[in-house]
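During the second year of the project, the team shifted from modelling isolated chains to modelling whole assemblies. The rationale, set out in the original proposal, was that interfaces cannot be judged from single-chain predictions alone. As a representative example for this report, we include one of the complexes processed in the last quarter. Its constituent sequences, exactly as entered into the pipeline, are reproduced here:
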Amino acid sequence: MTSYTPPHERAREAFLDAVRFDRAGLVPIIAQDAATGEVLMLAWMNRAAVEETLATGRVCYFSRSRGTLWRKGETSGQVQRLVELRLDCDRDSLLALVEQTGVACHTGRRSCFFTAIRDGAVTEIAAPLADPEALYGGAR
Amino acid sequence: MTSYTPPHERAREAFLDAVRFDRAGLVPIIAQDAATGEVLMLAWMNRAAVEETLATGRVCYFSRSRGTLWRKGETSGQVQRLVELRLDCDRDSLLALVEQTGVACHTGRRSCFFTAIRDGAVTEIAAPLADPEALYGGAR
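Output from the structure prediction step:
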């Protein structure tokens, strides 16, 4: 896997200026496993989160529930290293190709998208790979 | 590729009831190519769009700009057939695995996520595969 080299500030600023944040100052972002193509999660970033992610190569979201920057893996150790950040045609959503350490989902599953209809019922289609209690302890 | 068989109404209703729509009655949805894993686009659905998509197997979004249901491919012919619809752990975002006819992006590119930083500059990393004028004519 190619390691991420932060681009120069001018390129980072040009990218940031291209993003159309919504009225709350946020943009939705998809995290996709760069190696397997698996979609891991959908989260949100504000301008500071995009800035930090581009500058450090470590994915930082904005937690809408806590109202603060959310450095993915800070508590759980399940960090995401950026491979490439992409912007869509309307400039109002982002796609991050990442290297995921461990699991992306707080339930201990690799991906947050584990609920679907199968055999005529709403079903959990993936089992936890890690114990959420071990990942978060009392911190969550 | 497995073809989609609409589940019974009870399962569809259970899935719909599980989705947490935002204050505007919308939920973000990622469309991913079921065969290649490529992330094609991020769009939005309201309850009626989720309902129609599950019932027909043809992906229908909600157009925030037009304020109406948006049957993907209705004008362009670039339809998306549903393979599976998945809900995330927080129940506030969706992932659609789809079979994409032609291109997903209105610019004629396969994916909407074609802008990234490469070689120190914000760059278009994919070229159009289809002529938008041919896809939409004067209809867009």
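Chain A touches chain B at residues 7-8, 10-12, 14-15, 18, 28, 30, 32, 36-39, 41-42, 54, 84-91, 93, 95, 105-107, 109, 112-117, 120-122, 125 (CB under 8 Å). Residues 9-18 of chain A form the longest helix (10 residues).
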